[in-house]
Design goal:
This protein is α/β, with parallel strands linked by helices. It has one domain: P-loop containing nucleotide triphosphate hydrolases (Rossmann fold, 3-Layer(aba) Sandwich). Helix content is about 35%, strand content about 25%. The protein contains 10 helices and 10 strands. The protein has a 6-stranded mixed β-sheet with strand order 6-7-8-3-9-10, with helices on both faces. A hairpin with a 2-residue loop joins strand 4 and strand 5. The radius of gyration is 23 Å and the shape is globular.
């Protein structure tokens, strides 16, 4: 069993001209876990993902993904990963199935049609497989986008703010998808601005601020950084239902239903 981290980052630096974006970032991501990287706009989250996915070279520091150096072995890293950006990269003119099959063919996989059908079933898109993606909801497009990224069984997947612009129901659907990935052994690095997402399912959470990781731990560990909660008593105001039942009486409601 491989025990080394799926992702290892040490002293990562990156600047754009005179603007420092990363100022010495360090973290590990365990295999088969969900790691949430939090931070406000401009904190450097996307830059971290772009470096780890070999799209950008760091100015200094080291980063390893699945045991491969992102700077020295970019081709090996790309064989191990998949990246889903902030906006679904699907072709709206094609059907859901026709978005998946060509990707499987490009990866020279056997039986691309069967691979597409399996992914459509896994992401609850079978009933919409023959429909054009332009008719899909935002959540369906995002699930299809993630399904495309899993063709070839990458060991590590990067999700860069995957629920941006989605309604609450669609966000929950993406959450379930991410949890399913981890249950199947995929390592997930997720960037998000939504704190409830990280709180809901991340195994570990790191907060990136002004180019540095300022905290990194489990949710329980992070909560211990604050003083213990104080118990206070708040007067509960009656709801309209309470008022109605008090004035009319529950018995009267039962009698009216007879």
């Amino acid at each position: 069993m491989i025990t080394d981290p799926a992702i290892r980052v040490r002293a990562l630096h990156k600047s754009y001209r005179d603007l420092p974006v990363l100022r010495g970032v360090d973290f590990d991501v365990a295999r088969g876990s969900i790691f949430a990287l939090l931070g406000s706009d401009g904190a450097g989250k996307t830059t971290v993902v772009r470096i780890l996915s070999t799209l950008v070279r760091p100015d200094a520091g080291t980063a390893f993904v699945d045991g491969f150096d992102v700077a020295a072995q970019p081709a090996r890293v790309r064989e191990s990963i998949s990246l889903t950006g902030q906006f679904a990269a699907v072709d709206e003119v094609l059907t859901g199935r026709d978005n998946l099959v060509p990707v499987a063919r490009l990866r020279h996989l056997r039986n691309p049609g069967r691979i597409a059908e399996d992914l459509l079933e896994r992401f609850s898109l079978t009933d919409a497989a023959a429909r054009r993606v332009s008719t899909y909801s935002g959540g369906m497009r995002r699930r299809l986008d993630i399904a495309m990224s899993l063709i070839g069984d990458p060991t590590v997947i990067f999700l860069d703010e995957p629920t941006t612009g989605l309604d609450p129901e669609a966000r929950i659907g993406v959450w379930r998808t991410v949890e399913d990935l981890a249950e199947h052994g995929t390592t997930v690095l997720l960037t998000t601005q939504y704190l409830d997402e990280a709180e809901h399912f991340a195994d570990r959470i790191a907060i990136l601020h002004q180019g540095r990781i300022i905290v990194n731990g489990t949710l329980i560990e992070l909560k211990r950084l604050l003083p213990p909660a104080q118990v206070t008593y708040v007067e509960k105001q009656p709801t309209l239902e309470d008022v109605f039942l008090e004035l009319v009486g529950a018995g009267a409601i039962g009698e009216a239903g007879r």
